[in-house]
Each structure stands twice: as C-alpha cells, then as structure tokens.
Structure prediction request, 127 residues.
Amino acid sequence: MNKKLSEPNEDYLERICELLDKKSYARVTDIAEELKVKPASVTAMLQKLEVDGYLVREIYRGFSLTKKGVAAGKKIQKRHQVLYRFLNFLKIDPEVIADDVDGLEHHLSDETVKKLETFLEKEVNAY
Prediction:
C-alpha cells in the first residue's frame, strides 16, 4: 500500500522532476535554491525520499529518480498544470494563480484533477 506523500515530499519531487527535465541533473544546491530552503534540509529530505524508494544516489552524479519517483513527480506536475490551466481559464491574475496553485495542488484528488482536465478540454474546444 502506498502512503500519501506529504506536501513537502510532493514539492521536492515536483522540483526535482522540473530540474531533471530542464538540465538532466538536480543538485542539492539547485533544489535548495528553487525551494528557498537550506541545503541541509534538502539533504535530509533526499535521504527520506531514498528510504521511501523515490530516488537513488549515484556516486559522482548525485541522484536519480526511481520509476516510483518519476511517476509521483509527473503526477504532481500534471496536477499543477491542470489546476494552473483551470485558474487561468477563469482569468485570474497570474501572480495569484501561482500562489493558489502552490496551496491547492496538494489537496486535489485524482478524480477532481481528471474532471477539471475533462472540463478544460471541452471548454477550450468550445471556443
């Protein structure tokens, strides 16, 4: 049984996926900078995520995500994108959207994300 990831775990996995997509690597300093936390906090979280099976350390290369880590990270990214698109559809100010998405994305069920995605597909195609 997979336990639900905590909000910080989700934030770390989302940022790691973004960095890996952009640069093909994610260093502790990169993650710390992105999340505005201390490198020691990043190291502690990476150790936890490793124990939980989301990433593995690679000597001289830092770390990489496991299949489980990639799946979780991509799911979080998708939730973020769908929520962003929905709030943008409602013509909410982009700065407000950024704050709202970061707060709301952790609380949406898979069912809600799917319904929002379906709604957006229908509405965007209607215009």
Helices lie at 7-23, 28-35, 39-51, 67-89, 94-104, 110-126.
